[in-house]
TrEMBL record:
Designated name of the protein: Phage FluMu protein gp41
Organism the protein comes from: Caldalkalibacillus horti
Length: 125
């Protein structure tokens, strides 16, 4: 199975463009470090930290209906329900997944996987 970097979504309400067309189906890619770091330099984010969400979503949404492109004006024009949905979707697809460590019981030779939590390990150090 290939590593998935783009995910489909359906907006609860949908984006209405200038011609009155409704766009509900879209795609979002996984965020990169640059997607989270570079917007911090934007003056709009420095004036209003809440604007970070707008810029980040504009960077990671790759498709929305038949729109030729997604920019901050598109994200600003979303209904609040759809904005909240996309924020949640972003969190879900970019959530840190802990890897599993394959190991074997030294007594019975039973093989099994144990979740490896790097965050927990760093707290113990």
């Amino acid at each position: 199975m290939a590593f998935q970097t783009e995910f489909s979504f359906d907006l609860p309400k949908g984006f209405v463009d200038e011609e009155g067309n409704l766009h509900k189906k879209g795609r979002m890619r996984l965020a990169t470090a640059a997607d989270e770091i570079l917007p911090m330099r934007d003056p709009r984010v420095q004036q209003n930290p809440s604007y970070l969400t707008i810029i980040m979503l504009a960077r990671v949404i790759t498709k929305l209906g038949d729109l030729p492109g997604i920019d901050t004006k598109t994200i600003e024009s979303l209904f609040t329900t759809d904005l909240a949905f996309l924020q949640n979707f972003y969190q879900r697809i970019n959530e840190l997944e802990n890897p599993n460590l394959k190991t074997q019981c030294p007594k019975c030779d039973h093989s099994f996987e144990v979740p490896l939590d790097f965050l927990e390990l760093s707290r113990e150090a």
